[in-house]
Each structure stands twice: as structure tokens, then as C-alpha cells.
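rRNA methylase
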Amino acid sequence: MTPPRDRPAKPYGFRPRPRTQPPGPAAREGRDHVVLYGWHPVSQALANAGRHFHRLLATENALARLKEAGIELPIEPEMVRPSAIDRLLGPDAVHQGLYAEAEPLAAPALDAMPDDALLLALDQITDPHNVGAIVRTAAAFGVTAIVTTARHSPNATGVLAKSASGGLEHVPLVIVRNLAEALITLGERGFTRIGLDSDAGTTLDAVGPRRPAVLVLGAEGKGLRQRTTECCDLLVRIDATGAIRSLNVSNAAAITLYALTRSAGTAA
């Protein structure tokens, strides 16, 4: 009789689970349930004490990487093969061996914003890739929060979270019912409301450091709505000098935030 082989040591955080296939994430995700996948979104969420998890799936390599990074796991992980996560997300999702289901982060109130805040306001930007890229840029430039509406905006889950690359854990989303009313409230508090408009008469270079301030971005193609425009103190444009004058909204956000934060740093 062939002697039994030694069983390999269980990897970091491994816990066997029944081989059952739960419903896909699309059936559960929404404003009350979020799906996160990929190294940066999941690892940043795991490091955020404000995140509450329902489930964590990880490959053996991903678990080893989490251990090497010194990331504590707030929930017992399920070790799976990459194909198990592929079945949940689809073959084109770049999950890097990590998939999580969690509670959404608490949305702060508009009146809780500090007096020196730098905010972004999104006027019906619905593409989750664009919104996610804006969140990532906002995290890079120290934006205090992003103001968005309950309707006509993507949920902070899935593709948006992946595009944000962990930025959702650092830049809270302030959810409002009406963007114009929110801008009016911010104006009454002394916020300079700066709308980005390719047809504006004022260039971005002419805008000096402003705090508190809110940068208002409109959807690609449509731009800012008329009511939103009326609630802005300044309308500015990015002076593009090349053959293509229009920019993706997430790129425009990055350029504008760089200009505003550089000006503020220079002035200091």
C-alpha cells in the first residue's frame, strides 16, 4: 500500500467552505451591497476599519500577497481558484485573485464638510469608468469629498470601485437629492463654486487658490446643465493647444485639480 503523502500546510487565512455556487454579484450589489475586486480596491478596503465585509474570496497567491503586505483580515477568507472568481465576475474582469462583498461606506452629510474643504461635484456623470477614475484622481490630490446625486449616478461598486483603484476608501461620497440645491447650500457657506466649461471666457490659469471650493464637472457631451451652471460662481476652461481640444472628463478633473492644488501650495 502506498503510504499517504504529507498534506501541505494550510495557507494564510485558509478555511474550507462547501463547494456551493452562490448567486452572482449583480443580483446583490447596489447601494446597500457592494462588490469589490482587484488588488488595490480590496486591499485598501481591508485596511479600512470603516468597511464591513460579508465575504472575501482569494486565491492562494493573493492570500500570500496580503500576508506579505501585513494586511490584517477582518473576515475569514475563502481560498478559491481564479476560475471561481471568473465565474462571478466574467472572464474579462481583472480581479488579481481577490473578490469581496461588503457594506457600502457611510455617506457624510453636506453640512459636515470642513470650512477649508476642496470638493468635487458631479453633474449626471453616469459612466462608472469615468467616475471611478475621478475618485482615484480625487484621492491623489487630497479632495475632501465628492458630491453626487442619488439618481443619474453609478453605484460605488464593481467597475467603478475597480477604476477607483482603492480611492473609495479615502474620498467619501456625499449623496444629495438635488445638486443645484447642494451648490446653493455650499455657496451660502462661502464655498467658491467653479464650473468646468469648454466654452467659458475665463481660463483655468486665471483662477487662483480658493478654499473652501467645489469643482463642478458635467457629463461628457452634455456638459453642465443650465441650472447647475447658474449655481456656479466661476466658469473656467482648460486651454488646450493641440489638434484635439476636448478631454475626457476624468482627465479634465485631473488637470484642474493639479492646477488648483499647485496654486494653493505655491501661495502658501
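thats it. The two ends are 79 Å apart (CA to CA). The longest helix spans residues 249-267. bye
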